Amino acid sequence: MKKLYFLLIINFFLFTNCISQNKTDDIKELLQLIHSEEMINKVLDNVVSAVRQQASSELKDNQKLKEFMSFVYDEKNTLVSNLIDNDLVQIFDNYFSQDEILELLKFCNTTAGQKLIKLIPEIQKDLMDKVISKYGPDLQKKLLDKLNEIKYQ
User: Fold this and answer.
1) Sequence-distant (≥ 6) Cβ neighbours of residue 80 within 8 angstroms
2) Helix (H), strand (E), coil (C) string for 74-108
3) By C-alpha distance, which of 82, 53, 90, 89 is closest to 68?
4) Staple 108 to which of 33, 38, 39, 95, CB 3.0 to 4.6 Å?
């Protein structure tokens, strides 16, 4: 009887691990389909650009700047790998069931899904342009007015 319980427990853990591994693999496939690495790289490239600008004013020696920027790019690449391989997988695992991941995979493999994936960066850019051009000036004025109001109370 003890052997039966032991075998049932072993089978349960093996089955659970198998399902978990399949979900992880499916999430990784989904992350590839939606070009998550490219999106993360674009965001971090903006950070790297700001770091380069700051470092340029601090490091006047070109060789030292190159050495520092090499370090920055290595760190960025390590961060991207960790985000993709660990954090983003865990985030998707928390928010989506295995069935939902499979549905997303199916959708991403359709013509409409591929079009959406391709256009998301352009849609985001258009949205940001709209925020900046249409709402930005008014928002900036409101924020400055409020800042001055608080500052001079």
Assistant:
1) 37, 40, 41, 44
2) HHHHHHHHHHHHHHHHHHHHHHCCHHHHHHHHHHH
3) 53
4) 33
Cβ neighbour number for residue 44 with a 10 Å cutoff: 19
Say which range, 2-16, 35-49, 83-97, has the weakest mean pLDDT: 2-16
Could you report the per-residue pLDDT of 34-80, keeping only the tens digit for each? 989 988 888 888 889 989 898 888 888 889 889 999 999 999 999 99
CA distances from 83 to 50, 80, 104, 109, 147 (A): 21, 5, 20, 23, 36
Distance CA 141, CA 129 (A): 18
- The CA distances from residue 142 to 1, 12, 130, 139, in Å, are 74, 59, 18, 5
Question: What's the whole-model pTM score?
Answer: 0.66
Which residue type, as a one-letter code, is found at position 117?
I
Q: What's the pLDDT score for residue 95? A: 97
**Token digits for 108?**
């991403």
The one-letter amino acid at 63:
Q
Report d(CA 87, CA 78) in Å as an integer.
13
